[in-house]
Amino acid sequence: MERPLIDVVVPVYKVEDYLGECIESILDQTYENIRLFLVDDGSPDKCGEICDQYAAKDERIHVIHKENAGVAMARNDGIDVADAPFIIFADSDDYYEKDAIQHLFDLQQQYDADCVVGGCVKLFEQPDKTYELEKTTLKDGVVEKVSADEAMKKVLLNGSAIWNRLFKREIFKELRFPAGRVNDDEYTVLRAYNICNTVVFSQHPTYIYRIRANSITTSSFSLRKVDVFKNALDNMNFIKEERPHLVKEAEFKYIFSALYCYWNLRRMDRGEKENEAFKNIKTELKTDSMRAIKKNNPYLKLPYKLLYDLIVIGLI
User: Fold this and answer.
1) How far apart are alpha carbons 259 and 281 in whole angstroms?
2) Residue 11: which of 50, 39, 36 has the closest Cα?
3) Per the count of CB atoms within 10 A, which of 77, 116, 123, 176 is most buried?
4) Which domains does the chain possess?
5) Each residue of 216-253: pLDDT tens digit?
6) Helix (H, G, I), strand (E, B) or coil at 62
7) Contact, 163 vs 78, CB < 8 A?
8) Model pTM?
9) How distant, in Å, are the alpha carbons of 12, 215, 294 from that of 51?
């Protein structure tokens, strides 16, 4: 009996030095019944050409060339054409372990899970452009089956990526990524888990996450990263509507994001727009609702409560 088709969606932009390794890791999976959608997001380097070269050699690859509109829209374009029973994402400068999709699929079948999450190992770029794998604390063989509530708590308290997760395609029947925002993974995964009944987390290493010196994740703070606070506000309002019993977790992420953005905006050389964002967040921190969160939230640690107090009384 043939195993079901699994669609892999990879947004591609300015990663010509890493793209081949990503593509080959997917094509070389022990689970072979896959279809790979490479979404060339108007990349100005040789990425589009690289995608076409691979597509000419493997009929499982489908390339979408489009004008640059950001990673969220690239993923959405991939979702729009992916109609297999299952879908999984990757970032084009990362790569999968050889048995990753097989492992995630086996767990999906075992637990009839709506989503299965694999273990992630970080790969750090060194100044001389060599790489060093982190010393992982993953415990291979450890599997955790959780409810949607528990999975959403993980997102709110610890964050989340979209890659390294095998979803039933029906989860994305209507769900899409928010266009033009940083941290859109967390926004989307929270809403995806809200649709799930069962989510399975495995500590078997399946995904290698490359930490590059010039990536959005590691770059210095900028106005774009204020999206973290905007997403936290949207997520808190979403939780209040959909799962009010998780409001403490959502409020924690909201105040933590506000403090994070305030502290980093305070330290940077601010222009007009940055200064406006700084003032807006400071005003929000001083509201009665934020004071109540600071006072009553069980997840906010003492150092952050002290930071909050110093901001409110005007010392920093």
Assistant:
1) 8
2) 39
3) 116
4) 6-211 (3.90.550.10), 223-312 (no CATH)
5) 544 578 888 999 999 999 999 999 999 999 999 999 99
6) strand
7) no
8) 0.93
9) 9, 21, 49
